[in-house]
Amino acid sequence: MHSAEEKLFKKIKNLVGRAVADHHLIAEGDRIAVAVSGGKDSYTLLHMLEELRRRAPIRFELQAITIDSGYHGFRADTIARHLQELGIGHHIEITDHLGIIQEKRRPGSSYCSICARLKRGALYELAQRFNCNKLALGHHLDDFAETLLLNQFFVGSLKAMAASMLADNGAVTVIRPLVYVPEAEIIRYAAMRDFPVVSCSCPVAVCTDQQRMRMKRLLKELEKEIPHVRQSLLRALANVQPRHLLDRRFAPFSAAPLKTVSSPLHELT
Hints:
Layout lengths: L2 H21 L7 E5 L4 H16 L5 E8 L7 H11 L3 E5 L2 H8 L6 H19 L4 E3 L4 H15 L8 E3 L6 E3 L7 H11 L16 H14 L5 H9 L32
Parallel strand pairs: 1-2, 1-4, 2-3, 4-6
Antiparallel strand pairs: 5-6
Helix pairs in contact: 1-2, 1-7, 2-7, 6-8, 6-9
């Protein structure tokens, strides 16, 4: 590992370690299912968690899981070969999600949303099957910022993602250790490591979520004048002021000022 790669590796590892500590993502005895799609984010997540596992003062285990949705051209073998070289236990689940989508999707409805629901359900089921109490997903800092803006602009809700939350099945805790890591750093790291990135081979992959792409462009434009705009949006998620919102469910908080809590993200800027 040359100096530039090692420096970037340490930077990302430190951000992941800080997220783990800030949000109590990993505990002694955890068995963590890591969703590996074959993309840059999931590969980076797996490599960082494996490094932390080897060096952590606590004991925890990793189990890589991959969903093969049945899309023609998806190279599950490429993913399996990389995981074998890494020496991490892995499982590739073959599904007929493609057939289910083609049968159940209503004309004009989102292809991506039903695919995401099917994958999410399969990941929860696999985590339980492999006796994992946690499921690690590769959402990064940009995903959090973009989701916050998407919900505000298109849904009318102050909502993004959680670094840790109990899944819908009530049995698995979903964790997102890359929450502090900018996508640009992941892109650079994946290129340096020459990860065997594979396409999901989704038949509508060329029709990327246009609303999310608009948020990416907006953030990139804002970044020219506000260099840490993504970190600022993430900090906002950790510094909620209920007294200054219109949600009547928080009315009791309006009677007295709340003590400002410093954000654990101050070091990011």
